[in-house]
Amino acid sequence: xxxxxSVIRQSKDSSAQVSASSPAAxxxxxxxxxxxxxxxQRLIVLTGPTAVGKGTVEAKLRSRHPEVWVSVSATTRxxxxxxxxxxxxxxxxxxxFAAMEQRGEFLETALVHNMAHYGTPLQPxxxxxxxxxxxxxxxxxxxxxxxxQRAKELNLDVVYVFLAPxxxxxxxxxxxxxxxxxxEQRTKRLATARVELASxxxxxxxxxxxxxxxxxxxxWNVIAKEYNL
Length: 229
Fold this sequence. Notes:
Layout (H helix, E strand, L loop, with lengths): L2 H5 E3 L5 E4 L5 H4 L14 E5 L6 H11 L4 E2 L3 E2 L14 E2 L2 H9 L3 E7 L3 E6 H9 L4 E4 L2 H14 L3 E7 L3 H11 L4 H15 L7 E4 L3 H16 L2
């Protein structure tokens, strides 16, 4: 088996799986979806299990390719030190969030930890896609499933990218190194992660996050293919 053969594997639904240890492999991956139509670009949804590094990969991607636009979520929680409205989140009141939801202004919404609402504003996503700007939504797996349902209603073309750890042991190490959860919380998150990893085959593209730099490169190759860059 050649190196190029070893870094590209096929998931259960024959979608492309790309190991980030060879970012260029994304160029060779044959994806099981349609070519984008002129003026009809595809939203890229980046998801994966807890602690896999979605946000870190997305930040590295943006630092290398500032032309990429990443959706900014609206939330009803209070802002934290250093967070800026419109940059990290759109901070809105419960009343404003409810009104936006009632008007159908969100692509998806969620109540997180029974404390705060989060939602993806729909119109900015549509506007950036119409302009042909590479558009990414970085979201958890539940959110990705909600986007899948809503996208059908909106006839929105989406590419779903699953960011996977090199191994489950690696995910355990990543979660422990964060130091943000106690033992009970880590156990619950890891149990959730096992379930989330089992859904890998549902996605169009799988990128194995062996390093942040390589995963960001692999993600860019997916974007470049979709947007003919």
